[in-house]
Amino acid sequence: MGDVTRVLVVDDEPTIREVVTRYLEREGFVVDAAATGTEAVSLVAERPPDLVVLDLMLPGITGIEVLAGIRRTSDIPIILLTARSDEVDRVAGLELGADDYVVKPFSPRELAARVRSVLRRTARLETPNRPIRFDGFEIDPMAREITRSGEKIRLTAREFDLLSFLAGSPRQVFSRNQLLNHVWDSSADWQDPSTVTVHIRRLRNKIEVDPQAPDHLVTVRGVGYRFEP
């Protein structure tokens, strides 16, 4: 990100689009707005944002399709806007690489807090730790990259944060609520703990030899997860 942080807001409801845009601008962000998936795809290509706020229920090209299209070429953070009844689509969005979600109706203040949280995690402004090495992998906090035998593995910003947090405390067990607190800067009041489960599953698919019998991202039944180096 440069000195100016650009956010793309995608929602077909004019009131939501205008309120969110106005609030984020007041918080110091530069905001582009789109009413359709087609318009969103064009804006991402023309003026790549630092973060996308994306409604799932869009006419024409759906939010899920927009998300999938962005993820084919970019790892920019994406926050989904979903209705309370959209659990299936919400999980599908997380599986495709969304970093966070906010359930409608929401307050603009809550959304702005989520935007800042995701951007803060992505920017990683604090002094980086040393690389973490295990089983042919290397996690480089400075470059925000993970490689296996020198070959880069593509992770979203949230996936990287979750893996590096767990790997930074090997064999320590963390509950899903603890991980929401440390990695999402959130709590179960704002965020469904199943979000953690979805991200763990995605990570296993990317780094484990057998995701069904993981060697590194281990489930501790009834408690949470731990990292085995």
Description:
The chain is of the alpha/beta class and 229 residues long. The protein has two domains: 6-123, 3-Layer(aba) Sandwich (Rossmann fold); 132-227, Winged helix-like DNA-binding domain superfamily/Winged helix DNA-binding domain (Arc Repressor Mutant, subunit A), CATH 1.10.10. Helix content is 41%, strand content 21%. It is built from eight helices and eleven strands. It has helices at 14-26, 37-46, 63-73, 87-96, 108-123, 157-167, 176-183, 194-207; strands spanning 6-10, 30-34, 51-55, 78-83, 100-104, 132-134, 137-140, 145-148, 151-153, 217-220, 224-227. The strands form three sheets. Strands 2-1-3-4-5 form a five-stranded parallel β-sheet, sandwiched between helices. The chain has a four-stranded antiparallel β-sheet with strand order 6-7-8-9, with helices on one face. Strand 10 (217-220) and strand 11 form a beta hairpin. Helix 1 packs across helix 5 (108-123), helix 3 packs parallel to helix 4 and helix 6 (157-167) packs across helix 8 (194-207). The mean pLDDT is 87.
